[in-house]
Design goal:
252 residues, six-stranded mixed β-sheet, globular, 32% helix, binds adenosine-5'-triphosphate, Zinc transport system ATP-binding protein, Rossmann fold
């Protein structure tokens, strides 16, 4: 099996508080995986621990067969954090995408060409010189994704990439991510709350709430018992009617 990520016996604490316990997880190359769970269930912590930003008290993580910290230094890993790292409101969309090539040895001209190509790929070529801060949430997200993918990473980690985006834009975003996987063979690991929207795009769901409660396909995940275990017995599944333009959407 060609593994992208292997998490072994992971336990993570903040002070005395155990946030993740006994997590074992294997993600294959080219898979699209969603990490889901209630607020505070440890999803961001799991991403950050996989990336080596948080040291577990027990356990280890391998990425592409290497210890995680070593893998991150190879430049084969892309990461889109939950909060935008872009603070300077004067930066243009092009500048933000260029950040993704900060460690590249390409010439300035080549970098700009590649950034313009990437902006085209994410459908933002007409906005290259716009201040990033003037773009809408969905447009900013496309540019941020451009920053992450410009260096052709083998694995990308996205923490709640569709926050603040309407359902239609979310669908086109997930379509785009799927295209990247299909065309470039990228492995995509994302934290998401959009169970309904991601359903048709993900290969695997990781149901997390301190422990790994579920690992499998979306169909098995959308099971009353699995959901109750993860979200509590009060959880309700709302399946929109077929007449609804966003039919098939399932909310928790
Ligand atoms: N730096 C920190 N120090 C102490 N506790 C923390 C820290 N970061 C997160 N926590 C706590 O750890 C738990 C898990 O947080 P985490 O951000 O991983 O959850 P999450 O599932 O990503 O949540 P959400 O869906 O709300 O983004 C929460 O109870 C949170 O308050």
């Amino acid at each position: 099996m060609d593994l992208a990520i292997e998490v072994k016996n992971l336990t993570v604490k903040y002070g005395e508080k155990v946030v993740l316990q006994d997590i074992n997880l294997k993600i294959k190359k080219g898979e699209i995986v969603a990490i889901v769970g209630p607020n505070g269930s440890g999803k961001t912590t799991l991403l950050k621990t996989i990336l080596g930003f948080i040291k577990p008290v027990i356990g280890e993580v391998k990425i592409l067969g290497m210890p995680n910290k070593k893998a991150v230094k190879t430049g084969k890993i892309g990461y889109l954090p939950q909060k935008s790292p872009v603070k300077n409101s004067f930066l243009s969309a092009l500048d933000v995408v260029l950040f993704g090539l900060i460690n590249s040895k390409l010439s300035k001209k080549e970098k700009i060409e590649k950034a313009l190509e990437t902006l085209k790929l994410v459908g933002m070529e007409d906005f290259a010189n716009y201040p990033y801060s003037s773009l809408s949430g969905g447009q900013q997200q496309r540019v941020s994704i451009g920053r992450v993918i410009i260096s052709n990473p083998e694995i990308v980690f996205l923490d709640e990439p569709s926050t603040g985006i309407d359902v239609v834009a979310q669908e086109s975003f997930y379509d785009f991510m799927k295209k990247l996987r299909d065309e470039k063979g990228m492995t995509i690991v994302m934290v998401s709350h959009d169970i309904g929207v991601i359903g048709s795009f993900v290969d695997k769901v990781v149901g997390l709430n301190r422990y790994l409660h579920y690992l499998g396909d979306i169909k098995g995940f959308l099971n009353k018992d699995v959901l109750a275990k993860l979200y509590g017995s009060e959880v309700k599944l709302l399946i929109h009617s077929p007449e609804c333009i966003t039919c098939d959407k399932i909310q928790i």
